[in-house]
TrEMBL record:
Keywords: CBS domain. It comes from Pollutimonas nitritireducens. The keyword DNA repair does not apply. It comes from the Bacteria. This is CBS domain-containing protein. It holds the Pfam family CBS. Residues 7-67, 76-131 form the CBS domain.
Length: 152
């Protein structure tokens, strides 16, 4: 069964963070420049929230496209659903769908290990299915024929 730790290993360990007191405009610039959909919000070495394009879009809509002097703290999700490295991919899928979460922090106790995105999940599932497909094809190709089985 595919685990979150395996997905993180393939994904790599690049992680983008921000602080709660960062101006929204600066967070938006970081997300745009890095072509990412979320930032992990850290304070004093602890996860305190997530900022995704969803919160930014909602803020821009409510403020007529103006970020003003607002900080990340005012719009971040301060209670993001997280998973552990041992969580199964099936459970992550279920949680993402149930909570409408496109990004989930991966926590090993108090330590942030990374972030799993909906895209990461899709990529991992496609890769696992391709591997399984290849294994089944190899198994079928090596299947003994009736004449081979009779001669043994």
């Amino acid at each position: 069964m595919l685990k979150v730790s395996e997905i993180l290993r393939v994904k790599g360990d690049t992680l983008y963070t921000a602080t709660p007191d960062m101006p929204i405009l600066q967070a938006l610039e970081t997300m745009s420049e890095q072509d990412i959909g979320s930032l992990v919000i850290m304070e004093h070495g602890q996860l305190v929230g997530m900022l995704t394009f969803r919160e930014i879009i909602r803020h821009l809509h409510d403020n007529h496209g103006n970020t003003g002097t607002h900080t990340v703290r005012s719009i971040m999700d301060d209670a993001p659903v997280s998973v552990s490295p041992n969580t199964s991919a099936d459970e992550v899928q279920r949680l993402m769908l149930e909570k409408h979460a496109r990004y989930m922090p991966v926590m090993d106790g108090p330590i942030l290990m990374g972030v799993i995105s909906f895209y990461d999940m899709a990529q991992a599932i496609v890769a696992a299915q391709a591997f399984e497909n290849n294994m089944l094809k190899a198994y079928i190709r090596d299947w003994p024929s009736d004449s081979e089985a009779a001669s043994q």
